[in-house]
Design brief:
single chain, about 300 residues, Immunoglobulin-like, three-stranded mixed β-sheet
Length: about 300
């Protein structure tokens, strides 16, 4: 009787475990034929800002984890904050079409990482990044005066346009809070703020890899965060002639009202190295067209 009772108790637990295992993290797979309707513009859509949580406060966004050891994709710069004996990888948030867009830099190692990050923000995007519409609103000379109990204090020159000023502050806040010593930022003696105070400035789809101008090989892992319908993120790769050479899709860890990380693997066949474009987009639930498109120019390595 005791054994029978234990078995009866175990069976519901096994069923529950099987149900939970079906609700894992981001998934990806073959997308199949691309939408037959005309695509939206390759430039990023201003779109609606990411939705807030049920409490009304936007979800803070962090970068997805780095690729696991032995991943067959190309090798992008290390995740933000990665420090080796000789180098440090920093995350920079620039502006495009009134929204925040991230990129990364690998620079000689330094203990003054916040100063380095602000200097890079003021220097602005690379030519490849600028070609995609990225710009900076942070002027030279902005420096952190102190960091106390996780709060970085600094002054940011005023801007005539309130929206421009907010974007400038958002660049600084999102860039500085990548560092473990900075949880929030105090600007001009105002109340401290963090990433959640500017989360509405993120586009529906953020691409953290690949980076503009990066040489990528097949298969490629495309990463980022998104707040899209049913958490479904779609990817396609275009060659130098604009022909579609690869498609894929993935499921973000959260979506339809919340932001989650995604990871999509795509592979292509090309006989020569050439310029290309990685487009990350959402398929419209209304008419199946591509919306909220983020286009990243890259250099496609031959493969297949």
């Amino acid at each position: 009787m005791i054994r029978r009772g234990v078995a009866g108790a175990i069976a519901p637990v096994l069923v529950a475990a099987l149900l939970v295992s079906g609700c894992g993290g981001p998934r990806s797979g073959a997308l199949g034929p691309a939408p037959t309707t005309a695509p939206s513009s390759a430039t990023p859509s201003s779109g609606a800002p990411p939705s807030a949580t049920p409490s009304g406060r936007p979800v803070p966004t962090s970068m997805p984890p780095s690729d696991p050891p032995g991943a067959p994709a190309s090798t992008p710069p290390a995740p933000a904050g990665t420090t080796t004996r000789d180098t440090v990888t920093i995350e920079l948030w620039f502006v495009r079409a009134g929204q925040l867009v991230p990129t990364r830099r690998v620079r000689p190692a330094t203990v003054a990482t916040s100063r380095l990050a602000l200097t890079e923000l003021a220097a602005g995007p690379t030519p490849a990044e600028a070609a995609t519409g990225l710009t900076t609103l942070v002027p030279a000379g902005v420096e952190v005066t102190r960091i106390t109990a996780g709060t970085a204090t600094l002054r940011v020159p005023p801007a005539d346009d309130p929206a421009q000023r907010r974007l400038r502050e958002a660049q600084v806040v999102w860039t500085l809070t990548q560092f473990p010593t900075v949880r929030e930022v105090r600007v001009d003696d105002d109340d401290p703020v963090d990433r959640t105070d500017y989360a509405d400035l993120l586009p529906p789809i953020v691409v953290t890899g690949p980076l503009p101008g990066e040489r990528v090989s097949t298969p490629l892992i495309v990463t980022g965060t998104a707040d899209v319908f049913e958490a479904t993120v779609s990817v396609r790769v275009l060659d130098a002639a604009g022909r579609e050479v690869a498609t894929g899709f993935g499921t973000a860890s959260c979506g339809s009202g919340c932001r989650g990380g995604y990871r999509v693997v795509v592979a292509w066949r090309t006989a020569r190295e050439q310029k290309g474009t990685v487009e990350v987009y959402e398929v419209s639930a209304r008419d199946g067209t591509r919306i909220n498109t983020m286009a990243v120019p890259v250099l496609l390595a031959p493969g297949g």
